[in-house]
Amino acid sequence: MTLDQAAIHEAGHAVADYVLGLRCESVELTHHEVEQVEDHGQVMSANPQYGYKHDSKKAMNDTMRDASIACCAGLAAEHVICGVPLEVDNLNARADFANIIDFELRGMPIPGKRRGCVGDEGTWNYIEKTLRKARTLVPQHQDLIRKLADVLVERKKLSGEEVKLLLDEWRRPAVTTEPEAKPAPKNGKG
Ligand SMILES: [Zn+2]
């Protein structure tokens, strides 16, 4: 995995958090120390179960399912931008999928799954579906992902607040400046 690809992966997670209304707390590239930390980077996000004020169980489950999409968005961004196959056995997304299994363990219901156990075939079918959802999200936000990845390559670590400020800025529609109605009167003599 190249540095640029690692940056696209992490930016994919962070941008998905942003557009899904989830709270990213930090983004870090650890590609340069992958031998020590065994990870190319990481995004810390608010815990979907406890990190928000949910007014119903349904709202909490919805947040956990959105967080599952954000977990898949790293590989989905690599797929769309770098051409990496969108497959559940991708090693760089192993920890991301483990998070989804952890959400299920913590009570996230998997649509359509009535029996079986945590992490079984039904879970992996859900992960595959979620990966495809994340894949449809990426092209709409490809610009943000690329720009954030560039900043990450340069800075290595950004706080959630810094990420939000950058994305707010890039998302703001370009302001078109009206041409001046009248040229300012010249203060000339003659
Ligand atoms: Zn990831």
Q: What is the secondary structure topology, with strand pairs?
A:
Elements lengths: L2 H17 L4 E6 L4 H4 L3 E5 L11 H26 L11 H12 L15 H17 L4 H14 L1 E3 H12 L19
Antiparallel strand pairs: 1-2, 1-3
Short key terms for the protein model shown above:
190 residues, mainly alpha, Methane Monooxygenase Hydroxylase, Chain G, domain 1, three-stranded antiparallel beta sheet, 7 helices, 3 strands, 7% strand, globular, binds zinc ion
Give a verbal description of the structure.
The chain is mainly alpha-helical. The protein has a single domain (3-171), classed as Methane Monooxygenase Hydroxylase, Chain G, domain 1. It is 54% helix and 7% strand. The chain is built from seven helices and three strands, in the order H-E-H-E-H-H-H-H-E-H. A three-stranded antiparallel beta sheet has the order 2-1-3. Helix 1 runs antiparallel to helix 3 (57-82) and helix 3 (57-82) packs antiparallel against helix 4 (94-105). The termini are far apart. The protein binds zinc ion. The site of zinc ion (ZN) has 5 residues, from helix 1.
The topology string of helices and strands comes to: HEHEHHHHEH
- Percent helix, as a range, is 40-55%
What CATH architecture do you see?
Answer: Up-down Bundle
For the record, what CATH class applies?
A: Mainly Alpha
* Number of H- or I-type helical stretches: 7
- Which class of secondary structure composition applies to the elements? mainly alpha
For the termini, the CA-CA separation is 70 Å
Main sheet specs: 3 strands, antiparallel
The CATH superfamily appears as Peptidase M41
CATH topology: Methane Monooxygenase Hydroxylase, Chain G, domain 1
Strand arrangement within the widest β-sheet reads 2-1-3
Low-confidence stretches: none
Approximate shape: globular
The tally of beta strands, per DSSP, is: 3
Number of domains: 1
Q: What percent of residues are in strands?
A: 5-15%
